[in-house]
Every structure is written in C-alpha cells, then in structure tokens.
C-alpha cells in the first residue's frame, strides 16, 4: 500500500523460505547486514593518513526467533536431513506489515542452518515456548 508509510515501516513478521520450502513466520530477525573488512597500511613518509584498503566482505549470521508452532518440525527435519551431508541453499526472508503485506525482502545465497535453540521448558516458570534459528550465508541475491 504505497502512500501509507506508517503501516509499511513496521514489520511484525518475517516469512522465511529455503529453496522455496516455507519455514513459516518469525517474530524477530537479527543480523541482516554486510561488512567490508578494511586492512590498514602505513606508508613511509606519509604521516597525514593511513591507507584503508578493502579486502573482503563478511556477512553476519542471521537469528530468527518465534514461539514454537507446528512449523517448528520443519526446522528439526532440516537439521535431521543434514546427517548425510550439508547442502547450501538459497533462502528468502520477507518482512510483512500488520496487514500481511510484504514491505521488504532479502534473498540469501549459500544458506546453512548453524544452530537451533529450542524452548526452555520448566513447570515453575510459565512462559511462551520460544525457538531460535541461526543461519549462515554467503551474501545477498536479488529476490
């Protein structure tokens, strides 16, 4: 809905698909970013500055969190399928506004799940059962 930035600017869910298989919606998404690693070189006789040379690009891991749902089984199945070897995949993360409309998306290349953290289940502390999925990737692709 163009023209309604107040609605479009607030993302309330993040839909995740891996090789076109949906993992469902997550409540939070951390780690979308990129960093150019810079190497510093000092030049003899040049005291005014230090050379800043770009060397490589780094992508932080992405952490997705949500309450445990029926979609949680898709994540454990994904990890179980890796017992015969790890295969890098392509993923898409779509940010959705309160109306369910897509406001942004990020394609990820070379995705591998690196960690899943399940809920802490205790009888003396009734809380929402949360899970976190952490993904490593090799960079962004167009969606």
Structural summary, described in words:
The structure is a single chain. The chain has helices spanning 5-8, 72-80; strands spanning 13-18, 21-26, 28-30, 35-41, 51-58, 62-67, 89-96, 102-117, 130-136, 139-141. The chain contains 2 helices and 10 strands. The model has no long low-confidence stretch (mean pLDDT 91). By secondary structure, it is mainly β. The chain has a single domain (5-42, 50-141), classed as Pnp Oxidase, Chain A, CATH 2.30.110.20. Strands 1, 2, 3, 6, 7, 8, 9 and 10 form an 8-stranded antiparallel β-sheet that branches. A two-stranded antiparallel ribbon has the order 4-5. It comes from Longispora fulva. This is Phage tail-like protein.
Task: Give the topology.
Blueprint: H1 5-8, E1 13-18, E2 21-26, E3 28-30, E4 35-41, E5 51-58, E6 62-67, H2 72-80, E7 89-96, E8 102-117, E9 130-136, E10 139-141
Antiparallel strand pairs: 1-2, 1-7, 3-6, 4-5, 6-9, 7-8, 8-9, 8-10
Protein name: Phage tail-like protein
Pfam family, one: Phage_T4_gp19
Organism: Longispora fulva
The CATH topology comes to Pnp Oxidase, Chain A
pLDDT < 50 runs, ≥5 residues: none
| Shape assignment | elongated
Based on the coordinates given, report the CATH architecture. Answer: Roll
| SS field, number of helical segments | 2
- Average per-residue pLDDT, rounded, comes to 91
Order of helices and strands: HEEEEEEHEEEE
Q: Per DSSP, what share of the residues sits in E-state strands of 2 or more residues?
A: over 45%
Distance separating the two termini = 19 Å
Q: At the fourth CATH level, what is the homologous superfamily?
A: Hcp1-like
Helix content: under 10%
Given helix and strand content, the structural type is mainly beta
Radius of gyration: 20 Å
Number of strands: 10
What summary fits the major beta sheet? 8 strands, antiparallel
CATH class: Mainly Beta
Number of domains: 1
């Amino acid at each position: 809905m163009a023209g309604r930035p107040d609605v479009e600017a607030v993302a309330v869910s993040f839909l995740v698909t891996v090789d076109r298989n949906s993992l469902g919606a997550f409540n939070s998404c951390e780690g979308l970013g990129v960093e150019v690693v810079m190497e510093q070189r000092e030049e003899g006789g040049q005291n005014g500055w230090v050379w800043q040379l770009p060397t490589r690009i780094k992508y932080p891991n992405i952490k997705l969190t949500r309450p445990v749902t029926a979609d949680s089984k898709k994540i454990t199945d994904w990890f179980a399928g890796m017992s015969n070897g790890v295969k890098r995949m392509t993923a898409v993360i779509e940010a959705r506004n309160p109306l369910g409309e897509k406001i942004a998306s990020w394609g990820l290349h070379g995705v591998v799940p690196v960690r899943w953290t399940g809920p802490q289940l205790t009888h003396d502390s009734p809380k929402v059962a949360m899970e976190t999925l952490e993904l490593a990737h090799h960079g962004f692709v167009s969606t």
